[in-house]
Design a protein that fits this description.
With about 400 residues, this protein is α+β, with helices and mostly antiparallel strands. It is built from 10 helices and 21 strands.
């Protein structure tokens, strides 16, 4: 970096630091969390770009935005320092996948490794692309997010999901698992850390644990699921051998497999998909040709699942558009809860029902039932209770 570039960089970073202070002045939660940001010496660091930087241009405020708007000033200041910043990514491709790595980045504005050197505070700027799932993770340090632009759904163990829009905050205690999902827009954040572990790094939660956390949280806020039978995060965990099937690849490539109320859970299912032992329940039966290549099901909890349970089983069922799941029955009682998409259900001689995300249907023990998807796919959480050992069998229409 030349002397001129170094001077330009320092000026841009000082403008950003002042913009961050202005954010804090207007947001008591930030100031209470860390106190005022201290004066600290500028520490030149080698610039390092990430693919996500192009998104910053689209997040710039319109010319009509008032100069006094602290969020607008902060976004403009981040855009100005972007070419000089040491952008980083905390995870490996094995942990989060190539798509995630290509669509997020962060830099430390102030801290031990920041553009302003300070051993008592850590302040970061982070950006995540639209329709992106930041999987469950945790760290020792306490943390607070401030949304400067865009929006995202924030989830944390023990807290209700919260949608953050500009000017809002979300705090995480030390070691509290949390996740984030963007929908329709990227998010630009200002993040503060405090307390023990400020020098540590975040650690990803195991995909199976993350998925169980999502399901337990869904049951906490959905009486029909809780009344049918509860899962617990204390269930014993066992290792399973991944077993991919063609439907797993179809699900992974499905662009419409989400819904506003279940974005985090749908994303967690997709994240766990490569690790799942997908089932082929109907192999060797009279199931119509092609069904096995398009129907997907894997267990999360139950007698032979990643989480051992003897009185309840939990599965996920994926059906692409245009699939007919023929009449079948089983001794177990069953509850289908639709997470994304839609499907038509028939149970015995009852009238056909079309279910969408957030709807559920109950199947009594031994009741014949069938499912059909039309133009949309379907992703469902399926719970069983009673006889968990006997597999479903094909049956005739009642």
């Amino acid at each position: 970096m030349t002397v001129t570039e170094l001077t330009q960089a320092e000026a841009a970073f000082r403008t950003l630091l002042n913009a961050a202070r202005a954010l804090m002045d207007g947001c008591p939660e930030l100031t209470v969390f860390s106190g005022p940001l201290p004066d600290a010496p500028f520490a030149p660091r080698a610039a390092h770009a990430v693919p996500m930087l192009g998104t910053l241009q689209a997040m710039l405020p319109t010319p009509q935005a008032e100069d006094a708007n602290a969020n607008a000033a902060f976004v403009r200041a981040v855009h100005a320092v972007a070419p000089f910043a040491e952008w980083r990514r905390s995870y490996s491709e094995a942990e989060v996948g190539a798509d995630f790595l290509a669509r997020y980045g962060w830099f430390e504005l102030l801290g031990p490794e920041g553009h302003f050197q300070c051993d008592t505070h850590r302040a970061y700027v982070g950006i995540w692309g639209s329709d992106l799932y930041y999987p469950w993770h945790a760290h020792e340090a306490e943390e607070i997010y401030y949304c400067a632009a865009g929006s995202a759904i924030f989830e944390a163990e023990g807290d209700a999901p919260a949608v953050l829009t500009p000017g809002q905050t979300k705090a995480h205690t030390g070691h509290q698992p949390h996740a984030m999902t963007t929908q329709g827009s990227p998010i630009l954040t200002f993040v503060l850390w405090r307390g023990p572990g400020m020098a540590g790094k975040p650690a990803m939660t195991d995909p199976a644990d993350a998925l169980l956390t999502e399901v337990v949280a869904l049951q906490d806020r959905t009486p029909a699921l809780a009344d049918f039978g509860r899962l617990s995060k204390a269930l014993p965990k066992r290792s399973v051998t991944p077993h991919p099937i063609p439907a797993a690849a179809l699900m992974a490539a499905e662009p419409a497999l989400t819904s506003p109320g279940h974005a985090g859970l749908c994303a967690a299912i997709q994240a766990y998909g490569p690790h799942a032992h997908w089932r082929e329940t109907y192999r060797g039966t009279a199931i119509p040709p092609g069904f096995l290549d398009r129907f997907g099901c894997f267990a999360l909890a139950g007698p032979n699942a990643p989480f051992a349970a003897q009185d309840i089983a939990a599965f996920f069922v994926y059906m692409p558009p245009g699939l007919h799941y023929p009449w079948h029955e089983h001794p177990a009682e069953e509850l289908y809860y639709i997470l994304a998409g839609s499907a038509r259900f028939r149970v015995g001689t009852e009238p056909e029902r079309t279910l969408h995300a957030g709807d559920h249907v109950f199947h009594a023990s031994g009741a014949p039932h069938m499912t059909v998807t039309d133009d949309a796919p379907m992703l469902a959480l399926v719970l069983w209770r009673g006889d968990l050992a006997t597999r479903p069998v094909l049956s005739s229409a009642p």
